[in-house]
Amino acid sequence: MTAEAVQRGVLNQAGPAELGTDEIEKRVKIRAERQRILEGDDPVRLFVVIDEAALRRTVGGPDIMRAQLDHLIKMAARANITLQVIPFDVGPHPGTGGRFTIISFPAEDPDAVYIETIAGELLIESEGVGRYRRAFRRLNAEALSPEDTIALIGRIAGS
After folding, report:
1. Could you give the 3-state DSSP secondary structure of residue 130?
2. What distance in Å separates the CA atoms of residue 10 and residue 20, rounded to the nearest whole number?
3. Which of 15, 52, 111, 116 is the most buried (most CB within 10 A)?
């Protein structure tokens, strides 16, 4: 979510957690800091699969939503980012249960799965990571190609 959306108070009462302005600003700041690792001489490799519903649910009004979609297209053009969309016609998929992030570290550190919930954040390690890796592989296989994803986002942004 953009800082503009936060400033307009778009998210203060949105969603199941009904977060206050301070918490929303904190989360936006953290996400902005995380985005910096996608830039520079040695950027992190990022693979993202988004449900089509997230692209079509207007949050913050048409202008903010269009800016968000344009930002996705811009980010997807980077060599270190692969963006795919799970289209509606796929039906139920492994991501239906909620979003998750698989974090891979250098060989000496174990991988982990990060999940944000209404009650807080979860960090899963060891055997649980394998289940999420399998789910993510299935999401990759069922999602649109990166090229078709950008075309879909462009059509949604234009509507």
Report:
1. helix
2. 11
3. 52
**81 bridge partner residues:** 46
For 12, the token pair is 């203060």
User: Residues for the chain: how many in total?
Assistant: 159
Strand, helix or coil at 155?
Answer: helix
The SS3 of residue 18 is coil
Q: One digit per residue, pLDDT tens: the chain, 159 residues?
A: 444 544 444 444 455 556 788 888 887 888 888 888 888 888 999 999 999 999 999 988 999 999 999 999 999 999 999 999 999 999 888 888 888 999 988 777 889 999 988 888 899 988 889 999 999 999 999 999 999 999 999 999 986
The residue type of 154 is: G
> What are the backbone dihedrals phi and psi of residue 14, each rounded to the nearest 5 degrees, phi first?
-90, 150
Beta strand 81-86 with 46-51: parallel, antiparallel or unpaired? parallel
Q: Please report how the helices 146-158 and 62-76 are oriented relative to each other, as an axis angle in degrees rounded to 10.
A: 160
CA distance 79 to 134: 24
Of 81, 77, 131, 76, give the one whose Cα is nearest residue 102.
Answer: 131
Instruction: Let me know: does 1 contact 60? Beta carbons within 8 Å.
Output: yes
Distance of CA 77 to the CA centre of its chain: 16
